């Protein structure tokens, strides 16, 4: 008998976190599951720790070379035998009842995709500081069906919103297979956004549960903290590819308009960070060249200045408070 849920964990150099992620899956109230860990050629003890679990539901695979998170997830999905595919990043973890709750609601709603709210946790902290829905200021109190336009309009880069692109939906395996949906290996950051949007465009019934069962850890070594310029360049390229491949402009004009607004935000922030990143690296000549190429930098800088100052003030007072306590 096939498992109800296949949990896939792509892992890369997360020896400090992988055990907690695996334990959170094995402690689920839903027992009929399998866990597929695919290590992306780690150089630390990630594989040894993952392989130390004797539970027969755990399967550990190792890439012979580093392929990136998207290709690693695709490999895990190809090995999965469950009715549902649930993604878990190797530095995150589940609440014990997560899979059971989502499977129950998905069955009731006849869902193809289902996500929950996220607990947001900072590195080196044990308790969540907020949740994704709370920070979005969206009023979502009951299970809500998500359409593609709403998905994009509430996930504009650099703006407050729901940002379901970082949520971790559970996908019906049959839907992914029938619609030939997989992660795009050319996109190393923001893959979840494009996979979910592809599902929506191809007719998925996507539901959001307002209760948080997923613990999302933000840490300096994760892709979220990688080069913003690289991420924005990839996002711009993916926008063009997605619009052409899915024929969005003609088939779904409202969605096309929403995507264009996001594309505009990508381009503006790209102009800004193309200057900021070399400045931080003290590459003054490169920064000057980018300033001359991107005059929008100055406009964006003055728009961002109050936020930058506010973050600096909060950082200062936090450090001062910490010093006083010590």
Give a brief outline of the structure.
The protein is of the alpha/beta class and 326 residues long. It has helices at residues 18-26, 46-51, 69-79, 98-109, 132-136, 148-153, 173-178, 191-201, 228-246, 248-251, 253-280, 284-293, 296-325; strands spanning 5-11, 33-39, 58-62, 84-87, 93-94, 113-122, 130-131, 144-146, 170-172, 206-218.
The tally of helices reads: 13
Percentage of β-strand residues: 15-25%
Helical amount = 40-55%
Q: What average pLDDT do the residues reach?
A: 88
* Oligomeric nature of the chains: single chain
List the helices and strands and how they pair.
Elements: E1 5-11, H1 18-26, E2 33-39, H2 46-51, E3 58-62, H3 69-79, E4 84-87, E5 93-94, H4 98-109, E6 113-122, E7 130-131, H5 132-136, E8 144-146, H6 148-153, E9 170-172, H7 173-178, H8 191-201, E10 206-218, H9 228-246, H10 248-251, H11 253-280, H12 284-293, H13 296-325
Parallel strand pairs: 1-2, 1-4, 2-3, 6-10
Antiparallel strand pairs: 4-9, 5-10, 6-7, 6-9, 8-10
């Amino acid at each position: 008998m096939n498992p109800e849920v296949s949990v896939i964990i792509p892992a890369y150099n997360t020896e400090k976190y992988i055990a907690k992620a695996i334990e959170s899956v094995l402690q689920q109230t839903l027992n009929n599951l399998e866990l597929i860990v695919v290590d992306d050629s780690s150089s630390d003890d990630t594989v040894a720790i993952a392989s130390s679990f004797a539970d027969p539901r755990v399967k550990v695979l190792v890439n012979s070379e580093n392929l990136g998170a998207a290709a690693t997830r695709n490999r895990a999905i190809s090995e999965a035998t469950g009715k549902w595919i649930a993604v878990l990043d190797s530095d995150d973890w589940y609440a014990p009842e997560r899979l059971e709750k989502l499977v129950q609601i998905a069955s009731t709603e006849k869902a193809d995709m289902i996500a929950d709210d996220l607990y947001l946790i900072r590195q080196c902290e044990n308790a969540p500081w907020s949740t994704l829905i709370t920070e979005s200021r969206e009023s979502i109190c009951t299970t809500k069906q998500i359409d593609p336009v709403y998905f994009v309009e509430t996930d504009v880069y650099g703006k407050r919103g729901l940002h379901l692109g970082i949520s971790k939906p559970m996908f019906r395996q049959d839907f992914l297979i029938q619609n030939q949906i997989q992660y795009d290996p050319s996109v190393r950051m923001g893959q979840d956004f494009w996979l979910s949007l592809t599902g929506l465009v191809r007719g998925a019934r996507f539901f959001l549960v307002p209760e948080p069962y997923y613990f999302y850890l933000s840490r300096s070594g994760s892709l979220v903290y990688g080069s913003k310029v690289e991420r924005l360049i990839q996002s711009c390229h993916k926008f063009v590819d997605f619009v052409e491949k899915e024929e969005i402009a003609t088939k779904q004009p409202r969605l096309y308009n929403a995507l264009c607004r996001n594309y505009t935000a990508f381009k503006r922030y790209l102009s800004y960070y193309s200057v900021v990143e070399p400045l931080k690296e003290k590459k003054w000549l490169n920064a000057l060249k980018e300033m001359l190429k991107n005059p929008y930098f100055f406009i964006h800088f003055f728009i961002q200045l109050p936020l930058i100052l506010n973050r600096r003030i909060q950082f200062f007072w936090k450090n001062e408070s910490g010093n006083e306590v010590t």
